[in-house]
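Example for tutorial group B:
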C-alpha cells in the first residue's frame, strides 16, 4: 500500500486521535560529512531564516518538561525487557560519529532496557529532507514492514533545519508521519525525539523545527522529547564536523533518552 493510500485510510482514526489529544490538553521528537546525510554548511550565517514565530504553533496546555519530556497528560507504558522496539531516524540513529554501530545511541538505549531493537537510521533524511536516498520519513516508513513493536522512537529534525524547512512545512510533514504510524500501529507506543542544539546549525531554525514537532506530537497524543528545550548538551560531544555525536555523545544521548522514557512511565 502506498503512503497516500495508507493516509487516506487513516483519516478517520487520525481525526479521533486529534480530538482526544485536544481534550487532554484542555483537561490538564543527518548524515555523515560526506553527504550520506547532513553536511555542515560552509557558513552558519547563511543558514535559511527561521520559520514563522512561535505564535503559529500552539503551546497551550500544561506540559511536563523534566528530563526534556514535553507531553500532554497521557499514559505511557515503558516496554519490558525482551520487547521488540523500532528506533527510526537519521544519521544520529544510524550511529554516524560513533566508532561502531553498537556504540550508537540507539543500540545503547536498547541495551539499557534489554530490548530487541530494529534500528532504522538513514543519514540525510528527515520529515521533509530526502537525502541521497531521495526519500523522506513518510516514504521510508511506508516501505518498512513493521511487526507490531511495543515502541517506536522517531528521531529527527536536524536535516530539515539544515535545509531551512519552514515551520509550517515541518508541522505538515510530521503530522503525516505520525498519522501513518498511528494507522499502521494503533497499539504501539510512539515517542518523538526532536533535534538538539549543535554548533553548525542555526539555533533559530532548529527552534522552529522543535516547535513544529512538539505540536504534531501533541495532536497525535505522542510524548515529545525535546533536547533543545531542556538544553541537552549534545554539542559538547561531537566529532570534528560539529554536527554528529562522537562515542561519548552517543552515550550521553542514550542516557538522556533513557532517563526521559523512565520519567514518562511515572
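The residue assignment follows.
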Amino acid at each position: 500500500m502506498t503512503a497516500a493510500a495508507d493516509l487516506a485510510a487513516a483519516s478517520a482514526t487520525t481525526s479521533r486521535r486529534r480530538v482526544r489529544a485536544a481534550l487532554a490538553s484542555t483537561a490538564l521528537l543527518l548524515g555523515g560529512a560526506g553527504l550520506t546525510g547532513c553536511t555542515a554548511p560552509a557558513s552558519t550565517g547563511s543558514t535559511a531564516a527561521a520559520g514563522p514565530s512561535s505564535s503559529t504553533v500552539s503551546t497551550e496546555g500544561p506540559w511536563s518538561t523534566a528530563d526534556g519530556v514535553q507531553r500532554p497528560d497521557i499514559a505511557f507504558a515503558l516496554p519490558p525487557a525482551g520487547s521488540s522496539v523500532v528506533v527510526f531516524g537519521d544519521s544520529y540513529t544510524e550511529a554516524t560519529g560513533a566508532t561502531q554501530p553498537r556504540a550508537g545511541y540507539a543500540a545503547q538505549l536498547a541495551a539499557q532496557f534489554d530490548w530487541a531493537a530494529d534500528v532504522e537510521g538513514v543519514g540525510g533524511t528527515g520529515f521533509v529532507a530526502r537525502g541521497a536516498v531521495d526519500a523522506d520519513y513518510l516514504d521510508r516508513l511506508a516501505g518498512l514492514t513493521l511487526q507490531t513493536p511495543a515502541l517506536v522512537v522517531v528521531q529527527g529534525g536536524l536535516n530539515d533545519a539544515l535545509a531551512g524547512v519552514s515551520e509550517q512545512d515541518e508541522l505538515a510533514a510530521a503530522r503525516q508521519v505520525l498519522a501513518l504510524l498511528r494507522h499502521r500501529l494503533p497499539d504501539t507506543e510512539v515517542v518523538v525525539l526532536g533535534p538538539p542544539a549543535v554548533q553548525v546549525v542555526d539555533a533559530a531554525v532548529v527552534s522552529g523545527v522543535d516547535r513544529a514537532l512538539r505540536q504534531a506530537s501533541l495532536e497525535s497524543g505522542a510524548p515529545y522529547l525535546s533536547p533543545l528545550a531542556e538544553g541537552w548538551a549534545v554539542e559538547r560531544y561531537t566529532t570534528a564536523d560539529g554536527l554528529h555525536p562522537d562515542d561519548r555523545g552517543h552515550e550521553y544521548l542514550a542516557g538522556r533518552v533513557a532517563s526521559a522514557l523512565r520519567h514518562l512511565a511515572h
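The radius of gyration is 17 Å. Compare this with the pattern of hydrophobic and polar residues in the output above.
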